[in-house]
Write a structure and sequence with these properties.
The protein is an alpha+beta fold. The chain contains 3 helices and 10 strands.
């Protein structure tokens, strides 16, 4: 997917779809825009104050962020307030093998929105269940490479740049 319009336009589309978003560092010329040589969250850490807790769906705030940081990647806040829960399938930690085991035991996952990450993983988007308090958890339910993004979390969104040189893209968006 090539970016055929400014990232601000994509951010504005996401808030119209109900997402609460925040700007995160981008990737320019293969490097995180934070310019730290030892950055361990390249193209993924927040630029705004308070990270996911400062996410917004206010168009004026979004415009001010991308005016200040036009190179920023886009992330969506997860949790009760945003109504979003994400299952992150991490291929480098055997996430696809774990997903297969999870589905063998519990049935196929159904999600109308799935993002393919720049590393070849997947983000399954679900409605956050209002009767529960779900935080962020790596290796969900003991499954290696399956991470949950809930209260206080966020996930990078299309068409953000990944350090691999690939972009986040929609695999399914119904």
């Amino acid at each position: 997917m090539s970016i055929d319009k400014p990232m601000l336009d994509y951010a504005m589309e996401l808030i119209k779809e109900g997402y609460y978003i925040l700007p995160v560092h981008g990737v320019v010329n293969g490097k995180c825009t934070c310019k730290k040589p030892d950055c361990d969250r390249q193209g993924k850490h927040p630029l705004n104050r308070n990270g996911s807790h400062g996410a917004s769906n206010d168009s004026e705030i979004i415009k001010s962020w991308w005016k200040q940081w036009p190179y920023a990647n886009i992330a969506a806040a997860t949790g009760k307030e945003s109504g979003l829960l994400i299952l992150d399938i991490d291929p480098k930690n055997k996430g696809f093998e774990s997903l297969k085991k999870l589905e063998q035991h519990n049935g196929a996952l159904e999600s109308n929105r799935i993002v393919e990450t720049g590393s070849g993983g997947l983000h399954y988007h679900f409605c956050y269940p209002t009767d529960y308090n779900i935080g962020n958890k790596q290796n969900f339910a003991g499954y290696s490479g399956l991470d949950i993004r809930g209260n206080g979390g966020y996930a990078v969104m299309p068409p953000s740049n990944h350090i691999s040189g690939e972009k986040y893209k929609w695999k399914r968006k119904d």
